[in-house]
Each structure stands twice: as C-alpha cells, then as structure tokens.
C-alpha cells in the first residue's frame, strides 16, 4: 500500500500540472461557436478554425516575428558580450577588475521595475521607442550571464590559453578558437535561458513597443482580449506563443534543469 | 610618472572598438594609440595595475565602477603600492596581492594583458554604464523631481516621498502586494517542497516527472494568466463547469474581493513552483544518505526523519527559496494586468501596477520613480534578511 502511494501522488500532481495546458489545447481546437464546455472535450470535432481566425483578426505573424527578433538577437549578442566579459574577468588582470565585477553583480539587487522609468526616459530620448534596437539593446546588460560565464571560465586551466598564445595566435583568435569551443555547454545553457527570458518578457516590450506592429507575441496575447476575439481564438493564440518554449524545453530540458540546480539562474 | 587628471565623467562615451579605454584614458589623460600599444611613459600601466586592489574597498558605494576605480587611485607622486618592493607595502590599503604582483608590474606583458582585458569587457561595460548604472542613479534623481512627459522638471526634494506617505492608493497597493506575497510564497514553496520530496523519494520515471513539473516555469506569466483567467471564469470556466456538474457554484473567483488574490496567487504558484522545486531537489540530494539511514536504524518514522533530520538540513536552501520567491512576489504585475486589470475595485492593484500607471497612464515620472525606489528598498531588505539568515546558518 505504502509502496503504491508515491507513484499515485506523483501521477496526481502531474495531472494537475498539465491540466491547464491540456485545456488550453482542447479549447483552441474546439469547434467555434456555442458554449466552450463541454464541447471542447469532444476531440472528434476538433478544428483548426480558431487558429485561422485568430491569425486573420490579429497580426500574430508580425508579433511572432518581433518575438523571434527580440529573442534571437538578444541571445546572440548576450552570448558574445557576456563570454568576452566573462573571459576577461576570469583570465585577464586589469585595473578595476574586482570592483567592476562586483558592480555588475550588484545590479542584480535592483529590480527591473524600480528603474523602469529612467530606463524608458533614456531609451525614448535616444529615439528607441517602437524600434527593435530600443527593445533589444537595453536588455543586453545581463549580469547573470556575465556571472555564469566568469564562473565557468575561471575553472578552466590557464595552460589551455597560454599554449595558443605561444603559438602566436592573437587574443581575438585565442578567444574564438580556444575559449568559445571550451565553453560550449555554458553557451547552450545560457542561450536557452536568455531565449526564454526574452520570449516570455512582458513589461519592457509592453512599454517600449507602443504601436501594434511592434508588439511581441507575449504582449500581443495579453492585449488580444476585448478585441472581439473569442476564448477559443485566445487559446489558439496562447498555443502558438507556447510552442517555441516547449520546443526549446523539449530539446534542452537537461541543460535547463541541471543548471538551475547548480547555479540558481533565475529570470 | 604620468599625470593623473580628473576624469571627465561621461558614462556613455561610445567607443565601440576600443571602448575599454575610458578607464585607461582617465588615468593617463591620453588615449592609447589605435594599434593598442600603450602610450606615454612606461609608468602609466604600473599605476593602473596598482589601482585595482586599492580602490576596491572604497569604490563600493555605488559609483560607476570604471570611474570609481580610477578616481580611487593615489595622487600623482604618491608611489603606487608595491613599487618600492614587495617586502615594504607603502600606501595604506596596499594589499599583499598587489605586492606579489609587483614583479610583473612594469612588464609590457602585464600592460598588454590589462588592455586586452579591458577591451574584452568593453562592450558589456558600456552597456552596463548606459543601461544599468545610469538608470539606477537616474531613478534616485528622478524621484526628487516632478519630471513630466514634456521633459520639464523642477527639483522638489522629498516632495514625492511625502506625497507617497499621504497617498491612500500607495498604502492600498502596498497592502495588496503584501497580502499577495503572504499567499504566493507559502503556496509556491509548499508545492515546490512537496514535489521535490516526491521526486527525491522516487526512482520511477524521475526525469520525466521532473520535466513535467518544470514545464509551467518555461512559459510566460502572461500565458499562465490567460489560461487561468478562463479556468476561473464564472460562465463556462473549467472550475465552475466542474462545480456545476457537482451541483455547486458558481464561484466568481476573480470578481470577488476576498478571492481574487488567492486565485491569482494560485495561478502564479502553478507557473512558478518549478524553479524552487529544482533548487530544493538539489538540496535534498546533497544530504548524505547515511544521515537518514542512521535515523531509520534509530527507529524514526518517515515523518520523523523528514521533520527532524531532512528539514533542519534543508533550512539554508529553504531560506534561499523563500526569499527568492518573496522578492519575485513583491514585483507582481503581469498576472494582474492580464487577469483583473487590478480589480475588482483595486483589490488586486499591486505596487508595480501603481508604478506602471503613475508612469505610463498619468506620466507622473518623478512620482513613479519614487515608487520604484520604495520597491528597491523592500527588495533590498529581503536580500539583507536572506544574507543574515544564511550567514548565521553557516556559522
């Protein structure tokens, strides 16, 4: 009896955990019109109408494109800049190194919302409202990324870099041909996290993307309601936004869960 | 010896390719030559190298770091620590590390290394100066002004803060946020602890279940809010449909002033517990098996083992998770924006929602900045408590 209790509990909790996803998908595929329940549970009548409808009534493809640009460009630039900075903090002696690293880390203590206003004023003065760069560039200053990179690189033996240098390779060459390949696992982990952070980000895209055309998918989903859209169509939209997260998660689950356990990464 | 001139503090000088040079230029009053070879006399890099360890303690007060490090340098004429030889550290604050490095101090290799290091940090440094350190100081400054949408402002001292203290809306939103936190944190941590213990005890499909429980965490709060809003719906919502089958309900979860916060907290807990679960699971796995085994041999029941052996050993991790979730909860905004728009009658109008409205609905930027600073202080207090507790735990 006691042996069975554990698996039963596990399955029960698992059921509750996935239920919201399941009902989202069911409602998204339910035939349009009429009451949502219990019709949604009749899978034989599943239809794609809600998806085609919501794609027509809202500019979801544009929002998806914005989300992709926001997430992918941020991933690439953060990985590059953070690994460069992490390498310098870990392996190069330069004046102010400790203070600088400390100061980078200290910004973790300041919640984003606390500096939202000056952030917005700054970017708007620079003409960044409703632009891709205004959306992306301010989010590149990511202290967790720098921290993670430094912690990983610092434990790599110096000899690895020295050997390449003795062979006459330039610093940049050492970085691209020695450092980057060595830190591939961190790049993957961090890449996943940064992608998810940006894909799921809400407040910053909400204030900086003011025209409908500059909304990200997450912001778009939040504003779908009240625009004469049915719940079935909203769930269809929700299903679309979650697909990339699930893909990334499915492919890189192990990286993701392991790195939280070891480094406590958190958005 | 190179001349050290006061640095023109311009945090955002954009020099993309050689952007590491601001610090460098501050100390030497001369930019390096384009090919990266250091200019001026050979003493310049020596001075720079000495700056790092010495400036560290003094420059922590929140000044932009690059500048802080350079300004903290000894005056020209005062020999940088270690120059007189490793055995006799002259200036106050010269640490042994500085002395030990004295040998390589003047070598071009060290100088080059410093330049390369700065060049590699440069892109991130510029980003941090412009988009992190700048806005943080800016927030403090703005909160002392009545900055408006037009860009016009006057300095009003503590005006925004005295206004805050008399603003019912502020106290209301603070109360809502505190209640929400008091609901969300126990829900999330209990859920996380429960699932972590379940996973720890089982070997059957552990990876699968772990992934499954973690799934909601990789989605957005907006998504969670959209789904749960429908689940809570009076007409046709999932829970009320189920209650209807049982002949109960309907319950207006999001329309009832006393139910709205627990309902939102539950939805957020569903979205967020995966993170704490992983941290707690790692904590559980780090407890040596022998400890539990010893307790079993002593005749302890499963509950006794958990209560008197596992839980005390897990305490530091629990503290960490509690504080992290509390900090998270205090910044709540997205869920309320999507699910209730702060209603009914501001029963779910959080502090950040108030900040958002002050800034982007009423364009009262100075006031909103003051709210931001209050939020920062609260989060800071949480962090300090965490340090305290975990610090004590380690003693």
Automatic annotation (TrEMBL), chain A:
Keywords: Cell membrane, Membrane, Transmembrane, Transmembrane helix, Transport
Organism: Streptomyces lavendulocolor
Transmembrane parts of this sequence: 7-30, 68-90, 99-121, 133-153, 174-197, 234-252
Listed CDD domains: TM_PBP2
Homology family: Belongs to the binding-protein-dependent transport system permease family.
Superkingdom classification of source: Bacteria
Residues annotated as domain ABC transmembrane type-1: 64-252
SUPFAM superfamilies: MetI-like
PANTHER family linked: ABC TRANSPORTER PERMEASE PROTEIN MG189-RELATED (PTHR43744:SF12), ABC TRANSPORTER PERMEASE PROTEIN MG189-RELATED-RELATED (PTHR43744)
Lineage: Bacteria, Bacillati, Actinomycetota, Actinomycetes, Kitasatosporales
Gene3D superfamilies: MetI-like
PROSITE patterns per UniProt: ABC_TM1 (PS50928)
Topology of the protein relative to the lipid bilayer: Multi-pass membrane protein
Compartments reported by the entry: Cell membrane
Keyword Thylakoid set for record: no
Name this polypeptide is given: Carbohydrate ABC transporter permease
Record's keyword annotation contains Membrane: yes
């Amino acid at each position: 009896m006691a042996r069975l209790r554990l698996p039963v509990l596990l399955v029960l909790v698992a059921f509750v955990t996935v239920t919201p996803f399941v009902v989202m998908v069911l409602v998204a595929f339910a035939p349009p019109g009429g009451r949502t329940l219990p019709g949604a549970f009749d899978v034989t009548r599943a239809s794609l109408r809600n998806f085609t409808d919501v794609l027509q009534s809202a500019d979801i493809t544009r929002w998806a494109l914005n989300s992709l640009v926001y997430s992918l460009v941020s991933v690439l630039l953060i990985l590059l800049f953070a690994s460069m900075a992490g390498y310098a903090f870990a392996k190069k002696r330069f004046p102010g190194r400790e203070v600088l690293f400390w100061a980078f880390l200290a910004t973790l203590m300041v919640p984003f919302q606390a500096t939202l206003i000056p952030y917005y004023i700054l970017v708007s003065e620079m003409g960044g409202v409703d632009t891709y760069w205004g959306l992306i560039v301010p989010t590149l200053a990511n202290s967790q990324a720098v921290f993670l990179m430094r912690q990983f690189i610092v434990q790599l033996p110096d000899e690895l870099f020295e050997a390449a240098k003795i062979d006459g390779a330039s610093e940049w060459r050492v970085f691209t041909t020695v450092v980057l390949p060595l830190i591939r696992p961190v790049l993957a982990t961090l890449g996943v996290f940064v992608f998810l952070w940006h894909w799921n980000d809400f407040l910053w895209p909400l204030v900086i993307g003011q025209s409908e055309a500059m909304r990200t998918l997450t912001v778009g989903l939040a504003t779908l309601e009240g625009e004469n859209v049915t719940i079935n169509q909203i769930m269809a939209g929700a299903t679309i936004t979650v697909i990339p997260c699930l893909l990334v998660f499915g492919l890189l689950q192990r990286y993701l869960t392991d790195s939280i356990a070891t480094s406590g990464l958190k958005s | 010896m190179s001349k050290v001139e006061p640095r023109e503090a311009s945090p955002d000088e954009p020099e993309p390719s050689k952007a590491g040079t601001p610090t460098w230029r501050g100390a030497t009053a001369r930019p390096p030559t384009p090919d990266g070879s250091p200019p001026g006399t050979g003493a310049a890099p020596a001075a720079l190298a000495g700056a790092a360890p010495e400036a560290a303690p003094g420059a922590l007060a929140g000044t932009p770091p690059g500048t802080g490090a350079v300004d903290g340098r000894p005056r020209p004429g005062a020999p940088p620590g270690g120059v007189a030889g490793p055995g006799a550290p002259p200036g106050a604050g010269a640490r042994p590390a500085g002395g030990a490095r004295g040998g390589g101090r003047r070598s071009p290799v060290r100088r080059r290394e410093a330049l390369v290091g700065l060049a590699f940090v440069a892109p991130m440094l510029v980003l941090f100066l412009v988009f992190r350190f700048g806005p943080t100081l800016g927030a403090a400054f703005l909160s002392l002004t009545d900055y408006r949408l037009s860009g016009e402002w006057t300095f009003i001292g503590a005006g925004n803060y005295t206004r805050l203290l008399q603003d019912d809306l502020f106290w209301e939103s603070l109360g809502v946020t505190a209640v929400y936190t008091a609901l969300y944190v126990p829900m999330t941590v209990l859920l996380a602890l429960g699932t972590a213990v379940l996973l720890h005890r089982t070997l059957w499909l552990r990876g699968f279940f772990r992934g499954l429980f973690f799934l909601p965490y990789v989605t957005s709060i907006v998504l969670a809010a959209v789904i749960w809003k429908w689940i809570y719906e009076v007409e046709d919502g999932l829970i009320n449909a189920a209650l209807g089958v049982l002949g109960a309900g309907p319950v207006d979860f999001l329309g009832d002033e006393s139910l709205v916060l627990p309902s939102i907290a539950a939805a957020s807990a569903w979205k967020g517990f995966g993170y704490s679960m992983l941290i707690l699971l790692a904590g559980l796995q780090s407890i040596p098996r022998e400890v539990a085994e010893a307790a079993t041999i002593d005749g302890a029941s499963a509950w006794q083992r958990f209560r008197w052996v596992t839980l005390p050993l897990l305490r530091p991790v629990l503290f960490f998770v509690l504080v992290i979730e509390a900090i998270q909860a205090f910044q709540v905004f997205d869920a309320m924006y999507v699910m209730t728009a702060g209603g009914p009658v501001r029963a779910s109008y959080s502090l950040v929602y108030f900040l958002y409205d002050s800034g982007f609905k009423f364009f009262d930027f100075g006031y909103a900045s003051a709210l931001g600073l209050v939020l920062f202080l609260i989060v800071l207090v949480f962090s300090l408590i965490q340090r305290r507790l975990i610090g004590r735990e380690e003693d």
